[in-house]
Every structure is written in structure tokens, then in C-alpha cells.
Write a structure and sequence with these properties.
The protein is mainly β and 147 residues long. It has two domains: 47 residues, OB fold (Dihydrolipoamide Acetyltransferase, E2P) (Beta Barrel); 82 residues, no CATH class. It contains no helices and eleven strands. Strands 1, 2, 3, 4, 5, 6, 7, 8, 9, 10 and 11 form an eleven-stranded mixed β-sheet that branches. It starts with 14 loop residues before the first strand and ends with a strand.
Length: 147
């Protein structure tokens, strides 16, 4: 069970976390946010549109978006995002939703991640809810706040 337990039911496609820091962009690196997630040690570094209302220490709800090099259906293993601290590079988990309108699959890997296949041989309709998948994440994973 998530601690503290949520008092309201939210869409399982939404990620609920705590904003730790907003890191501004520099001349050589884009800006990003550091977000932690309940009941995990995850501290994901995700690109995010600048927003004056982003306040470190506050809870934040939204969607995590990533592009996958190739998505493989696997039979064993656990749900995870690698590395635990930093930008996501490898994800494994169960498909909880198919978003045909945006050409994304939603994978529960400890946190829900909306993933767009980039391999031209793969499309969202090739997958089914309930399948266990694994993939490498391309640079540029982002967070979009729920409205």
C-alpha cells in the first residue's frame, strides 16, 4: 500500500510524486525536475515545461512520457526503472493501458510511464493490456502536469 495512502482515487495512468527540485537549463544541458515517488527510492530526472507554480516539496501529479528504442515482450522479471536516481534509461513493467490516439503504451514500472515506440516495425496495436514488457529509453523523458 502506498504510504501515505491516497485519499482519492486517481487514474492509474497518472504518476503521483513529490517535486524535489527544479534544475534550470544551462548553456550545455536542458532544464529538468527531480521527482520522488512514494514507497520507492526513485528520484527521476525528467524534462518539464517551465512553470512558475512548480514549488519544491509539494506533491505533483502528471504523466511521464518516454520514447522506447524497441519494446520487447518478456516473461519474467520485476517492475523497475533504471537507474533509481537520474534520467530513466531502462524500464520494465506491465502494460496497463493502450493510448492509440497518442501512439503510446502505458507501462506500470513502479510508476506509470507513457511510452512511444520508435522502432518503425512496432505500433501500439501490436501490444495488449497485461503484457509484461521491457525497453531502453531514449534521452528526453519528460513530465507533464495533470490539469
Amino acid at each position: 500500500m502506498i504510504h501515505p495512502a491516497p485519499t482519492t482515487v486517481i487514474d492509474p495512468r497518472l504518476a503521483r510524486g513529490t517535486l524535489r527540485e527544479v534544475v534550470p537549463e544551462t548553456a550545455t544541458k536542458p532544464g529538468y525536475v527531480r521527482i520522488t515517488y512514494p514507497n520507492s527510492r526513485y528520484e527521476l530526472h525528467l524534462r518539464c515545461e517551465p512553470d512558475a507554480s512548480l514549488e519544491p516539496g509539494k506533491r505533483i501529479i502528471g504523466t511521464i512520457h518516454a520514447r522506447a528504442r524497441r519494446i520487447d515482450v518478456v516473461g519474467t522479471g520485476g517492475r523497475y526503472v533504471e537507474p533509481v536516481v537520474g534520467r530513466p534509461r531502462r524500464v520494465q513493467g506491465m502494460i496497463v493501458a493502450l493510448e492509440t490516439a497518442t501512439s503510446e503504451i502505458v507501462v506500470h514500472a513502479g510508476v506509470p510511464i507513457h511510452c512511444k515506440p520508435t522502432d518503425p516495425r512496432q505500433k501500439v496495436t501490436d501490444f495488449e493490456v497485461g503484457q509484461f514488457v521491457s525497453f531502453d529509453v531514449m534521452d528526453g523523458a519528460s513530465f507533464k502536469r495533470a490539469e
